[in-house]
Amino acid sequence: xxxxxxxxxxxxxxxxxxxxxxxxxxxxxxxxxxxxxxxxxxxxxxxxxxxxxxxxxxxxxxxxxxxxxxxxxxxxxxxxxxxxxxxxxxxxxxxxxxxxxxxxxxxxxxxxxxxxxxxxxxxxxxxxxxxxxxxxxxxxxxxxxxxxxxxxxxxxxxxxxxxxxxxxxxxxxxxxxxxxxxxxxxxxxxxxxxxxxxxxxxxxxxxxxxxxxxxxxxxxxxxxxxxxxxxxxxxxxxxxxxxxxxxxxxxxxxxxxxxxxxxxxxxxxxxxxxxxxxxxxxxxxxxxxxxxxxxxxxxxxxxxxxxxxx
Length: 310
What we know:
By secondary structure, the protein is mainly α. The protein is built from 10 helices and 4 strands; from the N terminus they run H-H-H-H-H-E-E-E-E-H-H-H-H-H. About 75% of the residues lie in helices and about 5% in strands.
């Protein structure tokens, strides 16, 4: 009789079942909406970027911001609904149900299932589409940089002195208008770089990032592990509450192993970021060697701020 009572279905279980079903259906509709939005937006964004002659790509960023705003609205709707409906149902009951109550496990399972559907499915899909939209901004800067280098090779021997007509050699790419002295008559001639050459210093960091993106991805992946391990530990801890001795011992061993991996990830993450940051500025120095002193000051500031945080 005691076992039958222990397994009795709580009187409020039907309400939670309906709430969970509505929540799952709601998330499915939001996921369909984000997929429709992004599959239509991605080719449009790529086309706008390719046709946008503005060096700052303002027209592209206007469209891009609009898409990002719609994804943000989808995320907010999910968050608000989870907070109001799921957590609302959960907290309305959790203070009334003790850990020894037959319905306690049912209530915790409701919360876990709804949370997992939200964090492990919906958020992952949304993050995926956000990354796909983010990637539409990634102009192939190597092509852009190559065109500027080719342009430099074409003009560097065609510049002549305005006074005596002697040929003047432009021995490096300039980003701003520069005085070039004529070796024959010493006249100072103004060399004005093209608008594209002037932009090198503005996209050098993005180009450098593209070159070392694999290092950045390694850092991001390691950084995400800590959160993944934390949630796995939390899930095991919750499921361990009503387990038997054997199951508890096994779960505790798993949690201890996960905790070691979590701590290793926390320790390794800043190391990977520092490797990425050094490689980033090394590439920037290759792209804009004249700005090496400035770049190194920026690097020292960036690494100092990061080290102070960690």
